[in-house]
Amino acid sequence: MSLEVSTATPLLDAEGQFSLALESVEMPATNHSDTLSSDQPVNSHDLSPGPLSESLWVSMSNGEQLHLRHFMPSKLAEADKSPERIFMLHGEAECGRIFYDNSGQGLAGYLATLGYEVFVADLGGRGRSLGAEGKVTELTTRQIIIETIPRLLRAIELHNNDTDSQNSAHLVSNKATIWIGHGFGGVLLSAAWARLSTEQRSASRMVFFGSRRRLQSSHRLARHFSKLFLHPMIAKLIDWHQAFPAKLLRLGSSDENTDWYHCYAKWMNEEQWLDPEDNFDYGLALKSHPVPPTLHFAGKADTVFADIQDVRGFIDELGPHDARLLVLGNIGETTQQYDHLSMLIHPSAENDVFSFLDQWLLEQAGYRLRVEEDVLSSSDGNVAFAAAKPLSQTDAVEPSAAASYLEEDDRQNERASSSKETIVLCT
Fold it and tell me: Is the pTM of the predicted complex or chain greater than 0.85?
């Protein structure tokens, strides 16, 4: 679908932001045997119909439109309370499909069945996000942190907001209070937290799957990967190619631009966490404004992309906060060994991984209520977030599967290209 198909609309706000919404549809039931033979992520309850969902697009200042998949809660929330909203961000060389498959199952669908309202993003140049055909995104890492993530969060807040006015003073609070990131997505969410205003820091809980910034692992494969990735000749080839060819190298479903490569290489190799464009010190900012309680998953078999040692290092960088680390290795009766992708897409992940997330979210629900009360009674909302419990790490061991890489869903993109879209004002 080309960018030109979706830009002809006068319904823009002062910042030039809007969304395109497809008709809401219920994901069809999927035959389990058919699903296992596909390249898309799968999870256990494939025979049940998926949750009701829709697609939204949010415009960036450079003209790209980023896709948000919106999963409606399939379990009724309490009568006097709206369902809690979740924002999900994928990692490097991937798209939002890491969180859901063709039938709408996966982590996004699982959380929707529990009564959460889930929004899954596709960053630029991947998934169903719109831009120049056949090219990688032009958005830099810094733009994603200071513009893209805030716009996506704002679009979530204003989507189907129960108000007759666009005036923010009359808006019902529909902010995403749970942020979930996979891989580099967790690093981007943490960096955005460091730069956002107090009002924009809507998360009361964060969940990171295999997220690390700096690569310090002593594992042999990690050392080889680091040497190869950081080799000067590789950097020259990527600059010449004008993209990091993740699909060609079978390292993911989406290519990344050269800015991402140089930023990723800098952050994985340097002790100090500095922005490559303006030298903003993320580590220092997070010490002043630590993240809320976080749950970290590390795969015992994930020895390259997010080794346990590197995940621990990332936890330390996030400031003095309440952190729990679950190491996925041998929990339960399964003998699977979860790696960077299978912790989200393996058929056993719902029982072996997602159930622990469900328990943790329920345990931390009281924290969210305390934060809301503190923010209302305090002129400085930062005090509420800084009052998190001291850093603690609880290790558990859990299952995994053989490595597999997601492929882009070309057929779904083709169907989207031919679908009749309705333009809906987003902000």
Answer: no
Answer positive or negative: Cα dihedral of 142, 143, 149, 154: positive
Domain edges within the chain: 3-216+279-424, 217-270
SS3 per-residue string spanning 114-176: CCCEEEEEECCCCCCCEECCCCCCCCCHHHHHHHHHHHHHHHHHHCCCCCCCCCHHHCCCCCE
**Model confidence at 123: pLDDT above 90:** yes
Q: Does pLDDT of 18 surpass 70? A: no
Decide if domain 3-216+279-424 falls under CATH 3.40.50.150: no
Query: Tell me: the pLDDT tens digits for 308-320?
Result: 999 999 999 999 9
Do 405 and 251 touch, CB atoms closer than 8 A? yes
Lowest mean pLDDT among 75-89, 90-104, 248-262: 75-89
119-151 burial code (b ≥16 CB/10 A, e <16): bbbbbbbbbbbbbeeeebbbbbbbbbbbbbbeb
- The shares of helix, strand and coil residues in the chain, as percent rounded to the nearest 5, are 35, 15, 50
Q: Measure Cα distances from 19 to 64, 99, 375 in Å.
A: 12, 21, 30
DSSP 392-419: -----B------------HHHHHHHHHS
Q: Are 126 and 254 in contact (CB under 8 A)?
A: yes
Task: Return all residues near 321 (Cβ < 8 A) that are at least 6 apart.
Answer: 290, 291, 292, 293, 294, 388, 389, 391
Q: Is the pLDDT of residue 86 over 80?
A: yes
Question: Which among 48, 90, 73 is positioned nearest to 174, based on CA atoms?
Answer: 73
